[in-house]
Amino acid sequence: MAWSIAEVARMSGVTSRTLRHYDEIGLLPPAWIGSNGHRYYEQADLLRLQQILLMRELDVGLREIRAVLDSQADQVAVLREHHQRLLVERDRLETLARTVGRTIAELEEGKDDNDMVKINRPENLFEGFEPSRTEAEAEVQERWPAEWEQSQQALESMTAEDTERWQREVTAQMIRFAEFMVAGTPVADPAVQAEVDAHYQGVCRFWTPCADAYKGVGQTYVDDPQMRANFDKIADGLALYQRDAMVFYADARLS
Hints:
Shape: globular
Helix content: 55-70%
Radius of gyration: 24 Å
Number of strands: 3
């Protein structure tokens, strides 16, 4: 059985324009195109669209989504991973709902004789909130908006093959930094700084940071929980070590 683009749009809530865009970028091509020029989708395409929408709900970019879908990973395993992440997000939203409900109750019931509200435990006001960006990342975007936009455009233009190759290069470089760190090599050592220079040249493929901006990039490795976790999966303390090496490089070569 096949469904027209209009029927898929109605079922999924995704506009026909978005579905055509997904086709144009190779993310969701239709099963076939009729003699009338209309796109038609089969069950496999609907399942693929469900995965796309799940990953969009989790704030995954289109480039990353295509890389995942084109990797031919086990569909059920991928859905299980999405399901687990959705359960985590559900728990966070439930916590956030309790936070707001508790605040409403305290505002309604906690007025004193002067009609002032006293919050019993102010720290409870923020339970369940999750910052969308680190301060360091926000600072980089705020101070160098043109360069930030340039980097985002460069990332979006990468193909799935480009992304996979780049990720392999980044991982290999992180391992080399970890080997220096485990060996106790100071960040000022010429060999470490040569590796930092290679890292800086890699960043320049997307944008060209000045000394302060490059330090800001290094700080995101430490401040962003997900990025720091990626570094620390390779070696505990790696994010701090690479950040310090980048600071030394920026002061010595970019200032």
